[in-house]
Amino acid sequence: DTAVVWFRRDLRVRDQPTFLAARERAGRALGLFVLDPTLLEPAGPRRTAFLYRCLRALDDDLGGRLLVVKGDPADVVPKIAKALGAGSVHVAADFGPYGRQRDEAVEKALGDVEFVRSGSPYVTEPGSITKSDGDPYKVFTPFSREWAKRIGDATPADTDAKTLSWMDPSDKDGGPRAVKVPDDPKLDAELPEAGEKAAREQWEAFVDEHLTDYDEMRDRPDRPGTSRMSVHLKYGTVHPRTLLADARGNGKGPTSFRNEICFRDFYAHVLWWFPRSARENFDPKFASMKLDTGKDAQQRFARWQEGRTGYPAIDAAMRQLSGEAWMHNRMRMAVASFLVKDLHLPWWWGATHFMNLLVDGDLASNQHGWQWAAGTGTDAAPYFRVFNPVTQGERFDPQGDYVRRWVPELAGIEGKKVHQPWKADEPPTDYPEPMVDHKAERQEALDRFNAL
Ligand code: FAD
């Protein structure tokens, strides 16, 4: 018998529960990836290129035996299963709003062919952690206590490419046509190395060099103190179980790291319970908040996007996003606060810009990260806590190295003075003055909030 292993957000061979489930049912397996236009179109060139690179790496790991086809999964997956006479199709469950519907449609179209979900991209399946009365958690801390009780069960699955005997897709008779993984789209950013091996190497280097001090260094955008696992978690070139297995113990570093992995699960749970929160204020009170959306607002938005606000830390971060397709977490919070509370723009403008440029762009983490910063989300930052764009820079980039790396116009200003170039003896002429007065805009934000 043949089993189809349909890869989606799990582009790896290690720690793969789907392989174990397939092996129980069949002697050989077909590895499949479906290029689904519904998901590819909004992904943008950066995530598309990264995905293609992951697929080439996975194909190598399967000895060149990954079948890639194009089309609507509800159409092509059943056709492939039929062409092979397969008894089962194996996936890691998808909990996103689109993925859920797609999988239901595929399952229905498969008829008698078993559709087997094993595991998910998360430590805990979205929806599986509730309060004792069955209601969803809307606050992180109590959720995280329940989550912590479960992670002992999250043992990595012992698998590799040899767990299954992979059939040569060219032996398949009929069914949808195989395509080559397309060439990368044209890129304007430096992407991280893709694929499972790259994920593992990056992770091992982080564990060796930075995990112990993670709690202390995770807020420093000028240092390489975070794991950079977000993109690998997004594409499943590593599973969070594997990371948790290495980040054990009561040390401050591992404890703090586990907390961040828990945030990722939490936001996936929130999206599962409240799919509307990807598009609308989680807290409906904000529906009547006064926001700027006119022509002038669009011009302000463009300056934020380009990294020409005149606030060096904000500009460095926006340029890091353009150049590297990634931004440090501390700076994601700072630029989001600036967009919402200094520029009075809708958070979803910023969230969409992030989704267009981030290689780790992920609906659950991004939309809820934005809602947190905007004060509209689940246990969000209280609205009146407004980040000061200068102080954020001075605190978390204390020598100014991060700013000078990304804003070459300011490279001549030494030390932390770089955060207030307007105070320099000779302010650089090619760098803008602050586009808004933070103190005044902070008051404006509070006034609008108080008017609710
Ligand atoms: P590390 O500090 O090494 O953290 C380890 C892992 O924990 C991360 O890889 C990530 O999976 C998870 N994590 C850490 N912080 C958070 C968080 N606040 N929320 C959810 N998960 C977290 N993360 C994304 O993966 N995709 C996004 O599109 C995204 N958009 C964001 C938008 C805003 C406005 C904010 C404030 C945060 C956003 N985050 C997003 C969360 C966080 O900024 C990134 O996960 C982190 O910067 C990735 O770098 P890292 O892997 O080195 O993180």
From TrEMBL:
Example of a GO MF term: deoxyribodipyrimidine photo-lyase activity
In this protein, which residues make up the domain named Photolyase/cryptochrome alpha/beta? 1-123
Enumerate the SUPFAM superfamilies for this protein: Cryptochrome/photolyase FAD-binding domain, Cryptochrome/photolyase, N-terminal domain
Q: Which domain of life is it from?
A: Bacteria
Q: Which UniProt keywords apply?
A: Chromophore, FAD, Flavoprotein, Lyase
PROSITE patterns tied to this protein:
PHR_CRY_ALPHA_BETA (PS51645)
Segments for region (Disordered) = 159-186, 417-436
Question: What are the Basic and acidic residues biased-composition ranges?
Answer: 169-186, 417-426
Task: Identify the enzyme class.
Answer: lyase
Cofactor(s) annotated in UniProt:
FAD
- What EC designation does it have? 4.1.99.3
Q: Which family does it belong to?
A: Belongs to the DNA photolyase family.
- Entry protein name: Deoxyribodipyrimidine photo-lyase
Q: Identify the species of origin.
A: Actinomycetospora termitidis
